[in-house]
Amino acid sequence: MKLDILVFAVHPDDAELGCSGTILKHIAEGKKVGIVDFTRGELGTRGTAETRDQEAKESGEILGLHVRENLRFKDGFFKNDETHQLEVIKMVRKYKPEIILTNALDDRHPDHGRAGDLANDAIFLSGLIKIQTSIAGTVQEAWRPRLVLQYIQDRYIKPDIIVDISDFIDRKIACIKAFKTQFDSPDTKEPQTYISSPEFLEAVIARSREFGKNIGAKYGEGFTSRKLLGVDNLFNLK
Ligand SMILES: [Zn+2]
């Protein structure tokens, strides 16, 4: 299946926190969007790999994703090396997306920055025809998307572009809350964590509000780009 947008996320819930409004918006416009999670988030203080699998599935249904895969890399210990790059290259070539969204290149959780680097390196290498990959015996063609953006997740980073997600904030919160073991669940006996307090979710909403305000919208999601961004028509900018 060819996708319009492919999202790479090192932990199931990263895509939801960083760019689910943008995913929802583009799916509503008829675009095909998928997420490839790198790990099952098995080192998360709360829940298990199995509960995260189920939560990712439920969130994916709220998002209306066309596909969601998990590469089962080792949470916390995966490397940006040839073995991991080849697995990511296979996903780029399998789905041939026009646009890829990845983790931020620098964030509080070190997995995020390393995954952002891994994704960016693999996306570049995916365009080189002399790197050969195959899935189920079928040799893949080289592919490089025309645009790669990094979503902004925990640490504040000045965005290069902001997407208006005002119509999708409620569903963004709903898909984040699908990760029941991770976020504000007052009845749990599991330990409190950085992300489990009500204030964390409030901060996610406040960040969206701040990004939105900067473009004259109610809510927004910010992205960074390693290359300069162009536009065909100035009237498409707001
Ligand atoms: Zn994460």
TrEMBL record:
Pfam families: PIG-L (PF02585). It comes from the Bacteria. Signal peptide: none annotated. GO terms for biological process: bacillithiol biosynthetic process. Transmembrane segments: none annotated. GO terms for molecular function: deacetylase activity; hydrolase activity, acting on carbon-nitrogen (but not peptide) bonds, in linear amides. Gene3D superfamilies: LmbE-like (3.40.50.10320). NCBIfam families: thiol_BshB1. PANTHER family: N-ACETYL-ALPHA-D-GLUCOSAMINYL L-MALATE DEACETYLASE 1, N-ACETYLGLUCOSAMINYL-PHOSPHATIDYLINOSITOL DE-N-ACETYLASE-RELATED. This is Bacillithiol biosynthesis deacetylase BshB1. It comes from Pedobacter insulae.
